[in-house]
Amino acid sequence: MTDTNGKQRPFLGYGLGLRRQHYEDVLDTKPEVDWFEILSENYMVDGGKPLYYLDRIREHYPMVMHGVSMSIGSTEPLNYEHLDRLKTLIERVEPAWFSDHLCWTGIDKLNMHDLLPLPYTEEALDYVAERIAKVQDYLGRQMLIENVSSYVSYNESQLTEWEFLREVAERADCLLLLDINNIYVSAYNHHFDPVEYLTAMPSERIYQIHLAGHTQEKDLIIDTHDHPIADPVYQLYAEAVRRFGRVSAMIERDDNIPPLVDLLSELDRVRQIGNNFSRDQVA
Amino acid sequence: MMRLSELQSRFQSFILEPENGEEISWVGGTEQLPSHDRLSVYANAYLLRLKEVLESDYAAVNRAIGDGRFELLAERYIRQHPSRFFSLRDFGNRFAAYLGEQVEIDASLRDLPWLPELAQFEWTLGLAFDSAESTLLDEQDMASIPADAWPALQFEFCPCVHRIDLQWNIPAMWKSLTADPPETVEAIRTPGNWLVWRQDMVTRFRSLDEDERLILDLLHRGGNFNDGCELLASQIGEEGVSMRAASLLKGWIGQGLVADAVRRY
């Protein structure tokens, strides 16, 4: 698989989100995880344990960086102070790539600390594509943009989410982090076919896949990341691998963090699905 | 057509004040799941997330007053001080001051005059936890300083070193409240001066004798070694100064408090 610049898409293997509860275990046991994803904001501190463990673990594993605060879709000006902090961390970690979400997190200098959805309008499309391009220029590298899960749809939307995401990626010439769980959650919440979503994705831009658990409530699925990956999400992941081939994939567990060994066995299942379908493709 | 900025403004207003009574015409909804309920997922998550941050940063305060009272205070703080920070780490930075105001005006908190200090202590522990690393001066560095340089020597303390003055037995309360399982503890008014810092990735604290507090504060303000010795002399008399100064310095070096010693004229 080659990307938009004709390069071979890098394949890091199968990874986990690095969580503080596992720092010691990771260093003591050096588990068979191909790479770790760090949550960038957790390491934008001056010193202490987070950076100490980050540096130690980085010595043994490749890493990618994942952010939650860029607020790329906010109508507030880009926060260059934040981008500078991100740049400093990128220089420290030397990640394979960095990512953030296709969302906004607040306006009027406030932060809702949430990944709020955008309306899928031409106005938002122009606006967000230009902002991503600016960030890429400023940081001197392409970024990965991740689809978020959502519970509302704006009446103003003119495009589907997948049309919007694809168009953003094309116009900004950025890469994609596809969250399979988020597609599943949003498909349920907004009654669309998740396979149609996958079909619309520009395969060559997909550098990373997120998998996670969710919580089924009465009329909505909430993207809680506090459960193991659900079976339908595994099935959708298998569908994604069939379509896109080998893509670096990982489990993103954010709450109710289980022992590392439990995540490793979950990751085995991810690896098995990823390798099986990729092998089918090669054959 | 509603512009992006207008949509974001309405969305954020709803999160901050879900019961503002505004008609929600800009989000789709059904009879089964009205737009208000869909938007409420975000408003509820906002409140819950920030409450969890305060519970985690102020675990001892939470235990001291119990979940119900803590939740009420946390919610009021969240409503009055919406986050202006890129990271949740900083969200609770005004909680101790907020508790200070509440203790003055809220009759139900009158029996908890120590509460703001407990919060301030927990926040200071957090500051020491992830403040910047720095070089550390060791005994060999000290030994290599020429004798004639000492009077004009100024000390730089590590960024993780924090001073805190307390009117109550807060450190003892904090220890009991955060023990597993928590122990019962009584608030006792006992003024004291404390040092909080981090050594080998562990956050530490200890009380300071009056002469050590005075000299630390003086050196921290930029006073030199000679100024420090004069201050010690006024506290303990001339004859004990060199012994006491040497012992204090040895302690600070051993505890990893001193980043550098610079001779300035």
What are the SSEs and their pairings?
The complex is a heterodimer of chains A (283) and B (265).
Chain A (H helix, E strand, L loop, with lengths): L13 E4 L5 H7 L5 E5 L9 H10 L4 E4 L13 H14 L4 E4 L20 H18 L4 E3 L14 H12 L2 E5 H11 L3 H7 L5 E6 L3 E2 L4 E2 L8 H14 L3 E4 L8 H23 L1
Parallel strand pairs in A: 1-2, 1-10, 2-3, 3-4, 4-5, 5-6, 6-7, 7-10
Antiparallel strand pairs in A: 8-9
Chain B lengths: L3 H13 L18 H23 L1 H7 L1 H14 L14 H11 L9 H15 L9 H5 L9 E5 L4 E7 L1 H8 L11 E11 L2 E6 L2 H11 L4 H12 L4 H14 L3 E6 L2
Antiparallel strand pairs in B: 1-5, 2-3, 3-4
Provide a descriptive summary of the structure in words.
The complex is a heterodimer of chains A (about 280) and B (about 260). Chain A has about 280 residues and is an alpha/beta fold. Chain A has a single domain (about 15-280), classed as Alpha-Beta Barrel (TIM Barrel), CATH 3.20.20.150. Chain A has helices at about 25-30, 50-60, 80-95, 120-140, 160-170, 180-190, 195-200, 230-245, 260-280; strands spanning about 15, 35-40, 65, 100, 145, 175-180, 205-210, 215, 220, 250. The longest helix of chain A has 23 residues, at about 260-280. The two termini of chain A are about 15 Å apart. Chain B has about 260 residues and is of the alpha+beta class. Chain B folds into two domains: about 1-110, no CATH class; about 135-265, Outer Surface Protein A, domain 3 (Alpha-Beta Complex). Chain B has helices at about 5-15, 35-55, 60-65, 65-80, 95-105, 115-130, 140-145, 170-175, 210-220, 225-235, 240-255; strands at about 155, 160-170, 190-200, 200-205, 260-265. Chain B has a three-stranded antiparallel sheet with strand order 2-3-4, sandwiched between helices. A two-stranded antiparallel sheet of chain B has the order 1-5. The longest helix of chain B has 23 residues, at about 35-55. The interface between A and B is large, with 43 and 47 residues.
